Amino acid sequence: GSTTRSRLTWPPRPAPAAVLAKQGKYIAAFAPFGYQKSEDDKHMLVPNPVTAPVVRLIFELATKGMKYTEIANYLNDNGYDSIFEHYQKLGVRRCYERDIGQHMWSPSTVMGILYNEVYIGSVINNKTADNIDTGHQVVQRDKEDWIIVENCHEPLVSVEDFKLAHKMIARREKSPRKTRASPRSCTRIASAPASD
Fold first, then answer.
1. What phi-psi label fits residue 180: left (phi over 0), alpha (psi between -120 and 50 degrees) or beta?
2. What is the DSSP string of 74-129?
3. What does the alpha-carbon distance between residue 89 and residue 100 come to, in Å, rounded to a whole number?
C-alpha cells in the first residue's frame, strides 16, 4: 500500500549498529592494538604494520611458556611501545584508561591481548554497555550477550597458536613450586650472619 511506497521514497539510512554487529562489521570507535581500520571500509580491520608484529610476538612468547609478567617485562625491557604510547604517538586521545591499559606493558594488558579473539579473525561486538540503564558507566555484558562473528578479517595468529598460548600459560600458572621453605626457616636464613 501507500505506507510501503512512502517508506521506499526515503533515502536509505545507514545500517544500525546491531545489524552491522551481526554482519561481523567492526563498529567500535578505535581499532584494537595490532589492527587499523581499512581505508576502504571503516568497519573492516586490517593488520597494522607497526603493532601487528608486537601482537604476534606476545603470542609467540606465550606459546614458549612465558607468564604474563615475564612477557610484559620482556616488552618493557626491549623498548616496545605500550598501547598507551602507541596511541599517544598517533595523537589519538583515548578517554578511558580501561581502553588503553597503562603507560608501560602490564600483565593485565598482555592477558587482554592473549584472550582477545579479534586476533584469530573474529569480531566481537556488544561486549560492554554504556547507556541510561548503567548510569552511563561502561559495564561489561555477560558473555552470552556478546555478538561473535568468525573469519571477518585477516588473523594475526592461528587458532592453534591462540589455544596453545592459553594452554602453556595455564600450565605455568598452575605448576607447583618445586621447593618451598617454611616461614620459620626463611627467617632463620635471613637473620643468619654471613660466613666467609
1. beta
2. HHHHTTPPPHHHHHHHHTPPPS-HHHH--SS--HHHHHHHHT-GGGGT-EEE--EE
3. 13
What is the chain's pLDDT, residue by residue, as a tens digit (196 residues)? 445 554 554 555 666 666 666 666 776 778 899 999 999 988 889 999 999 999 999 999 999 999 999 999 999 999 999 988 888 887 776 554 544 456 789 999 999 999 999 999 988 766 666 655 655 566 677 777 777 778 889 999 999 999 999 999 888 666 555 544 444 433 333 434 444 4
Whole-angstrom Cα distance, residue 136 to residue 128?
Answer: 11
The neighbour count for residue 118, using CB atoms within 10 Å, is 23
How far apart (Å, rounded) are the C-alpha atoms in residues 143 and 75?
A: 30
Grid cell listed for 35: 589492527
CA distances from 125 to 29, 47, 70, 113, 131 (A): 12, 19, 30, 16, 15
Nearest residue to 68 via CA among 33, 119, 110, 102? 110
Residue with cell 589455544: 163
Angstrom distance (rounded) from CA 84 to CA 105 = 9
Whether the Cβ atoms of residue 31 and residue 156 lie closer than 8 Å to each other: no
